[in-house]
Structure formats: C-alpha cells, structure tokens
Amino acid sequence: MSKQEQHWEKTRNLLFITLAIWFVFSIGIFLFGAEMQESSIRPFGYPLTYWFTCQGSLAIFVILIFWFAGRQEKIDDEFGFTEREGDQ
Amino acid sequence: MIKGKFIDNLPKVYGIYTGGFLVFIIIMAIAEQMGMTAKMIGIFFVSFTVLIYALIGWLSRTLQTDAYYVAGRQVPTVFNGMATAADWMSGASFVAMAGGIYFKGYGYMALLVGWTGGYVLVASLLAPYLRKFGCYTVPDFIGTRYGGNLARFSAVIVLTVASFTYVTAQINATGTIASVALDIPFEIAVYVGLASILMCSMLGGMRAVTWTQVAQYIVLIIAYLLPVFWISNNIGAGFFPHFMLADEVARIAELEGQFGFVKNSAADLATVPKGLSAITKAHSSVNATPWAFISLAVCMMAGTASLPHVMMRYFTTPSVRTARRSVGWSLFFIFLLYSSAPMLATLSKISLMDPNLATGIIGKSITEVQALDWYQNWNQAKLMFVSDFNGNGTLELNEFFMKGSAVVLATPEIAGLPYVISGLVAAGGMAAAMSTADGLVLAISNALSHDVYYKIINPKAETAKRLIVARVLLVLIGFAGATIAALEIQGILGSVIWAFDFAMSGLFFPLVLGVWWKRANAPGAVAGMLLGLISGTAYLVWVRSGGSGFLGITQLTFGIVGAAVSLVSMIVVSLITAAPDAATQKMVDDVRVPSGKTILGKQH
C-alpha cells in the first residue's frame, strides 16, 4: 500500500470514530428521550434529556471537534503530509 | 499605539474595541439615570453600532480579487471562529430561538442540537478539504471537481435558492429590530436594515465582512449574556445561571401543572393579532416523539454542512490545519450563546409566571397588566396581547400572547432591568441579523459574479470589471431580498429552517461525495443537485397546500426527502455513466492530503 493509501485509510478510520461519537450524542440518545428524562442521573439538578439538549451534547461536540483536529494533525505528521511554509 | 500590519495587531485592535463598547454601555446607563428617554437610548445603541460596522467596512475596501473573495486567506484561527459564529448566528438564533424554546419546549430544542452538531460534519467531512481545494466559492468546488458548466450552474441554483430564503428572513429581522428601536414603520425599517448591510460588504467583500463580523460577534455575545446573568442574579436564581437554574425549571413545571394548558377556542383566537401565541407546551418535559426531534435535528445538521455562506468562511484561513481548528473555535463561540438560550427562555418564563416574583403577571388582574408600561409599548408594536377570554377578570396562562421574536427583546423590560439593557439587546439582535445577511448576500453575489459571470459568461473579464459586476449584483440581490422580506410570507424561524432544508436537499451529498467518493462524476452530481432540490421543493409545496405528507416529515423537515432523492439519484446516475477521468481522480487524491499546492491557484 502506498504512503498515500495508508494515510487515507487512517483518515477514514478517524472519520468513522468521529461520526460514531457524533451519532450517539446527536441522534442515539434522543431515541430514549422519554426514558432518560425519568432517570435519577440529574446533572446540576436538571432532568437528563433536558440537560443534554441544553448543554451536554453541545459541549461534547465542541470537545469532539478539537479532539478530531488533534488526531488528524498527528496522522498528517506521521506520513509527512503536513503543510509547509509556502505550500499555499 | 498600533504599529505594523493590521493582522498582527488583531487582539489589540479588538481588545480596544471591546473596551470602547463597554464604556459606551456605561455612558448610556449614566445617561438613562440622568433622564435620557428609552427611545433615545434605543436609537443611540442601534445607530452607534451600525456606524462602527460601516466604518470597518469602509476601512477594509479592496480592489484585489483574493481579498474580495477570500479575505486574502490570512484570517487567524480564533478570529475566523468568531467571524463564523457571527456569520452563523442569525436573527433566528439571537431573536427567535429562545422564543421557539419558550413556546414549544423540547420539540424546538432539537434546533440547539442540530445547529451545533452540524459542525462535527463540517470539520470532519468538508471544511479542510474544501480549503485545500483553494476555491473562491462553493460552486467553484463543484464546477472544478466534477467539471463542466452544467454542474457549476446547478450548484449556483441550489445556493441561490437556499441563501435567498435565508437572507429574506435576516432582512426581516433587521427590519423588526430597526422598527422597534428607531420607532419607524416596518416597511421603511427593512430598507434601513438593507442599507446597513450593504455598507458593510460592498466595498471590501469578504475582507470587510470578516472584520465586521468579528466586531458584530463581540456586540451580540455581550448583549445576549449580560441580561441572562443579570436577571438570574436579580431574582436570586444563582450567579451562574447555566449550572443553577434546575430549581427554576422544576418550579415552572409545577406552575404549569397548577395553571394548566387551557385550549383557546377558534373564535377567541381570531381576535389575537397575527403571529402571536400563548404557551401551549410544557417547558422541560419530553413532549415530542423521538422522530419529530431527531428528524428536525438531522435536517439542521446536514443543512449546516451544506450552507455555502458558512463553508466559505473556512476558505479564508491560512492553511488546512487552521481551517480544521477554526471549526472548533466557531462551535465554541456558538456554544456560548446556544447554551444560554434555554436559560433565557427559563428566566423569561419564570419572571412572567411565578406569582411570588414582583414581575409575575399570570394571576394578576387584566386591567393591572394592561396598565404596565412595558406591556403598552410591546402591545403597541403588535408583539404582545392580553384578553380576558373567560371573563373572570384575571390573566390566565392561555390569555397572554407574545410573538416569538419578542421573548428575547422584551425579557429585560419584563424582568425589570434598566432600559439600557433593552437597547443593548436590540443592538445585539441587529448585529446578529446583519452579520448573517452580509455573509449570505456575499455568498450569492460571489457565486453569480465569479461562477456565472467570470467562469461561464466572460472568462476574459479583467479584475476591475469582475469586481464591479460583483458589487452591482450585491446591491441588486440586497434589494430583491428586502422587497420580499417586506411581504412577510413566513416568520423568521420558519424561513431559516426552510433554507437549511433547501441547502441539504441539493448540496449535502454532492459536496460530501465529491471528497469521499472518487467514482462520483458530473452527471451524477447534476442529477443529485437538481433532483434533490426539485423533489424537496415539491414535497414542501405539497405539504403547504394541504397534503398529508408521509413518514411524519413536515414542512420543516422536507430536506430529508430531498437529500434521500439526491443521494440515490447521484449514486445511480454516477454508476451508469463513465467514471471520472484520471486527471479528476488525481485531483481528488491531492485534495485528501493537506500538503502541496492548492488545486486552484492563489488567484483565479
């Protein structure tokens, strides 16, 4: 496998992991909105589903993007595909 | 005080700007104490901020294409994040979203999840790759990746339909705010709003829009957060509302049980002014089916990843790496406002509902409420209404009506804050609507001037001529948008949601598959864009004209139909026609690695 194919495979795997986490917190948990609302887990005292829609999911997305960016930069570095001065 | 290049001094420049703005707020507060009228404060706030933006727009004027189209590709990560946040958070986010949550509760909170979750798709699927491509506009990417004027032109059509729907809503929002703050009729206020928008973008294109958007973000975030914290402290709900309003949320549920949701008769509702509603849904309980919630969230997420005015902000960063990080910063700055919107809705509702608070009006006598100063102001602006339907003399929950957009604008007054805060909120709403309208008008006129005029009609046009055409189109589109906004066909929130559905129907899969599926070709992309847009629109028209719809897809989520048709037709047509040539495949390979030259040259 060429260097570029390996790079793309790792990039794609990172995408799948990122999208899986995204799916859980944007769609997955809301399939159980009514059940979660009754849960005894109450972050800061808010009902659980309510908290996720107000803050939880949103904060997770912010962290997820920075984590994704960091991982992708590592992959680019590993294969020497990081941009250099004057590339653009 | 400031030496060297503007770009190197950004933190200093915007630091001074923020300080100056805070001083201005304090001066206004002192002026209010000394007896300045509410009306004058509103006029000062709106006109002062708009003049500052216009000044920035004038200072950023340019005669170069890469400055005009992509701000010279030198906008630093964090500042691009702020500019994107302002570009993104429109009048709908600032003025209408908390109102939507206030009236509809959980069902509309899907917007919070959808309008933030979409950024994960932007960061992982699109932004870095489109930055590597080095395009000026989104149709530029489609046209070069798939090849051919037909693909380019189809992308322009989808972009124009989606962005134009969006921009009419934003001009409507600037008109609403200008008419309340400056006390002029809505039909005139719409054109005042338009003039302010054009002043920011006309001379400097993307460069001017970038630096005004950063300035507008600073105003809008101060204007949104200050009242939330102030009210929360005022009513003793806690000094940091985001973590401390659980008791208030529970108290609202208790009061809702006590007051009950009485359904008004059709005859009673006929007396209520158009567009106003009463609270009919519970505040925090899960009152929408999972599918209703998820389908709306999915549409907003896919729409986010297809809207050209957002995507083109990531063309302005210096590199692929900064484009990726910049998406994270954008979402962080958006998060600051979005996590506050439900808190604002909660505080607004508890202020109105709780009889233990001085501000509570439910349960008071109708005549007492009608005598309130703020009620009279907002009633006069046709944004609030009370009526004693059951004739018992007291105001019931179902007898108090408000327009969705009034929730944010009126809450400071309702909660008894000084008027200076209302003036600040008006300036913030104006900033939010203007910044988005700027980005949208620019996205449309850039697509028409760069993709249609320069790439298709007259490829030999000189730089000066291209930029004149771009500016003329900008003004024409602005006027068309204002004219339609003055008709008020759909509410602000409704039209914005439509724009996302249009964008998702036509552009989501052609963009994503352009990077992630090498086999995708021009006929497939054209089929995907046009059939997606047509089927989505047809579904909307059908449901609007009384059609029953299917699978619980409503007029707010018609993008699901469009995107599904788009995906299927794109794959089928791509597979039955010839694979893209070797040069195109090589181009896709090049897009997938950050290093090396951009696909399109620096100037094109």
Describe the structure.
- The complex is a heterodimer of chains A (88) and B (604).
- Chain A has one domain.
- The two termini of chain A are 28 Å apart.
- Chain A is mainly α and 88 residues long.
- The longest helix of chain A is centred in the last third of the chain and has 31 residues.
- In chain A, helix 1 packs antiparallel against helix 3.
- With 604 residues, chain B is an all-alpha fold.
- Chain B has a single domain, classed as Sodium/glucose cotransporter.
- Chain B is 71% helix and 1% strand.
- A three-stranded antiparallel beta sheet of chain B has the order 1-3-2.
- In chain B, helix 2 runs parallel beside helix 21.
- The model of chain B has no long low-confidence stretch (mean pLDDT 85).
- The chains are: A mainly alpha (88), B mainly alpha (604).
- At the A-B interface, helix 1, helix 2 and helix 3 of A face helix 6, helix 11, helix 12, helix 14 and helix 16 of B.
- Total helices of chain A: the number is 3
Q: Tell how many strands the DSSP assignment of chain A holds.
A: 0
The largest β sheet of chain A comes out as: none
> What is the CATH topology of chain B?
Sodium/glucose cotransporter
Q: On the 0-100 scale, what is the average pLDDT of chain B?
A: 85
Averaging pLDDT over every residue of chain A, what do you get? 86
Radius of gyration of chain B: 24 Å
Q: How many structural domains can be distinguished in the coordinates of chain A?
A: 1
CATH architecture of chain B: Up-down Bundle
Q: Briefly note the structural class of the backbone of chain A.
A: mainly alpha
Order of helices and strands of chain B: HHHHHHHHHHHHHEHHHHHHEEHHHHHHH
- Approximately how much beta-strand content do the residues of chain A carry? under 5%
- Approximate helicity band of chain A: 55-70%
Based on helices, strands and strand pairing, what is the structural class of chain B?
A: mainly alpha
The CATH homologous superfamily of chain B is termed: Sodium/glucose cotransporter
Distance between the termini of chain A: 28 Å
**Proportion of residues in β-strands of chain B:** under 5%
> What's the count of strands of chain B?
3
Backbone shape of chain B: globular
Main beta sheet of chain B, described?
A: 3 strands, antiparallel
